[in-house]
Amino acid sequence: xxxxxxxxxxxxxxxxxxxxxxxxxxxxxxxxxxxxxxxxxxxxxxxxxxxxxxxxxxxxxxxxxxxxxxxxxxxxxxxxxxxxxxxxxxxxxxxxxxxxxxxxxxxxxxxxxxxxxxxxxxxxxxxxxxxxxxxxxxxxxxxxxxxxxxxxxxxxxxxxxxxxxxxxxxxxxxxxxxxxxxxxxxxxxxxxxxxxxxxxxxxxxxxxxxxxxxxxxxxxxxxxxxxxxxxxxxxxxxxxxxxxxxxxxxxxxxxxxxxxxxxxxxxxxxxxxxxxx
Amino acid sequence: xxxxxxxxxxxxxxxxxxxxxxxxxxxxxxxxxxxxxxxxxxxxxxxxxxxxxxxxxxxxxxxxxxxxxxxxxxxxxxxxxxxxxxxxxxxxxxxxxxxxxxxxxxxxxxxxxxxxxxxxxxxxxxxxxxxxxxxxxxxxxxxxxxxxxxxxxxxxxxxxxxxxxxxxxxxxxxxxxxxxxxxxxxxxxxxxxxxxxxxxxxxxxxxxxxxxxxxxxxxxxxxxxxxxxxxxxxxxxxxxxxxxxxxxxxxxxxxxxxxxxxxxxxxxxxxxxxxxxxxxxxxxxxxxxxxxxxxxxxxxxxxxxxxxxxxxxxxxxxxxxxxxxxxxxxxxxxxxxxxxxxxxxxxxxx
Lengths: 277, 350
Ligand SMILES: Nc1ncnc2c1ncn2[C@@H]1O[C@H](COP(=O)(O)OP(=O)(O)OP(=O)(O)O)[C@@H](O)[C@H]1O
Ligand SMILES: [Mg+2]
Prior knowledge:
The complex is a heterodimer.
Chain A: E1 6-7, E2 16-17, E3 23-34, E4 37-48, E5 52-56, H1 63-70, E6 78-83, E7 86-87, H2 93-99, E8 101-103, H3 116-123, H4 132-137, H5 140-159, H6 175-188, E9 193-197, H7 205-222, E10 225-229, H8 233-239, E11 242-247, E12 250-255, H9 257-262, H10 264-276
Parallel strand pairs in A: 5-10, 5-11, 8-9, 9-10
Antiparallel strand pairs in A: 1-2, 3-4, 3-6, 6-7, 11-12
Helix pairs in contact in A: 3-5, 3-6, 5-6
Chain B: H1 8-32, H2 38-63, H3 71-88, H4 96-122, H5 127-146, E1 148-153, E2 156-161, E3 173-177, H6 191-209, H7 212-222, H8 224-229, H9 234-257, H10 270-283, H11 288-304, H12 312-328, H13 330-349
Antiparallel strand pairs in B: 1-2, 1-3
Helix pairs in contact in B: 1-6, 2-6, 2-9, 2-10, 2-11, 3-4, 3-5, 3-9, 4-9, 6-9, 7-9, 10-11
The structure holds adenosine-5'-triphosphate and magnesium ion (MG).
């Protein structure tokens, strides 16, 4: 079921990764401080081209901050981020996206006054080329690309069976559908690495089960890497090939799901605590 | 399952075009039948100019989502550059409609350039700060035109600021005379030109909004952080909306000015900016048809209230407040929404 995992000697602490797959993301000694608070410290992380990796840890551990560092919402105070071997230092958020990182947000950020279809189409902007003159004069280039974008949007929406909601205002969707739409919008930008921030939050068990299937399906059809923040351990343990556990901004463990589940430090800091609650 | 291509927006846009054409035809017929009062006749062109202004400002306020308090500045750039062009071309282009068209285009071009230059600092700001700075730029443009002298003689164009040092040769003439503005303008603006301007403005705005650029602009308005996360070039798209809005205001200003024999910079002051903003807010942000109706109605209203002379501005203000209350009343709004969704359901059932 899982792809072939082999141990690699690496200064990145992930003990195993698929050697057949070149790295899509490599973080070295990544860190950021807010005032006196060390929100993320000394993070090393490597992800192969079609890996699904989990990023877990208690509230306030710094998980979302890692996403904000990877997407350059925050500038790291230390460390390097390599995307397909390319240093993304000096790039802004939009540029990083065009280089291949797309994300969803923990607190949903849709374009709520646009329709579902428009939300997806706007994600394809970098792949569209017609200029302002074509749109003002409705030249053939406009019609051709708009038609292609329309079809592509419906195709993407059908991953989550949302094609019939295409004309609905995004803001009026139910919560679960909004989370799914955010994933589709991110996919529309043609990423190589997809960052999902608590995609199952607020979903019921059957929605979560469906989401789990869909995350796998997305990885397989788009052949992309997925980095996933999630508090639903069932989901994380089921679909992630590697897991990285953060606590107070520091990595306390890395490994396969079974290793993480058996790791005393993780049980102490996160998993065990959860059972008590 | 075949989806209908006729989306809600397309329907609304078509209705807007249709109503503008209908209004034009009806007014032309009234005019031809001699049913139109001369005061209304005299207002047709200013109404067209204000309608175009309102639509163009709605692009900035409703679609881009930035409050601009200096829109009259672009109108004034268009007015001065457009009329100057018309005067310079008086002999070269004998056909008045063609001269008018060239002048409107020149007004739009100059306003676009000014919009671009102002946009560079202004679009870095957000919210209230942006509004205040646009206000300042509106006033700066007014001051510049109040102190600008432009003359033409056999050697070409002469420009001077602060006082008239154009030193024109024999036979030269002063076009822009500082605070005196431009005088001796040929009134070549026509109602039909105004109608065409409104239609062009609508086509530009609707076609821009219904394109990748329009989607990006509205996405930036709705959620800037998400817009960045999907790779949109924020500066480029904001600038595109702002410059387009400025250019359209420039064309409107040129049309407006060529309905009078003189034009002075003080006509395009803060009050004018606010007046146009009132049209936009009353008509609904992002709602072009609303802007058109509000601009037309509120330009006619003070004239229509002329009989009440002393109470005119009072009644005007009260009507404004009442409309504002009515359009923002939550009960009324939800009732209208229910009415609309009810109608839609009825349509789907068929
Ligand atoms: N912009 C900021 N300025 C100051 N402190 C911040 C900022 N962003 C995050 N922090 C702090 O960094 C720490 C990590 O926050 P982060 O949002 O990354 O946690 P998280 O692991 O995503 O938690 P949760 O599971 O609740 O989403 C928290 O203590 C938070 O208060
Ligand atoms: Mg978080």
